# Entry
Amino acid sequence: MSESLLQSWQRKNAQSTVENRDIVKRLKRKKGKQLDQLADEVHNEVFSKIDCLDCAGCCSGIPPIVTKADVTRISKTFGMKPAEFEAQYLTVDEDGDTVMNTTPCPFLLEDRKCMIYDIRPKACRQFPHTNDLDFSKNMKLHAMNATICPGVFHILRRLDAVMG
Ligand code: SF4
Ligand code: SF4
# Structure
């Protein structure tokens, strides 16, 4: 049976930190529309083969930024005051961003589903920032995210093979 993208990431990830940085350095030199367009296509291809419910790496390892609009939407659904929601679930990180106060995320369920999927923070919907033609705006993040997200790991390598 052939290895899945999730399995090959698990096997190679521990040794890949330097490689991720090198790939991003090479891709940075190719910044622009062509890279964003290709990244969008590669993103769709890679994520057609990865089921996020087998992974939940982002929800387990990276506290998402939560905006005021997120707080308003989510707290309303819970019937809570925004201030109550903030006190119970949020904190301010070392960069000054308001984020979920625990990792794994307090809304990650045991079956790896998100308890608030339909109303989840914007940052969760946008992760891992490799599609929607904004790949080149987030170059700094991609090397780091590749160690958390098997999708980013494979997207970087496929882009490098074509453009690096
Ligand atoms: S809110 Fe949902 S999607 Fe976002 S990190 Fe938490 S569990 Fe994951
Ligand atoms: S880390 Fe990547 S592959 Fe894993 S659940 Fe998050 S987006 Fe999906």
Summary: The chain is about 50% helix and 5% strand. Residues 5-58+128-163 form one domain. Residues 33-47 form the longest helix (15 residues). The chain has two domains: 5-58+128-163, 63-126.
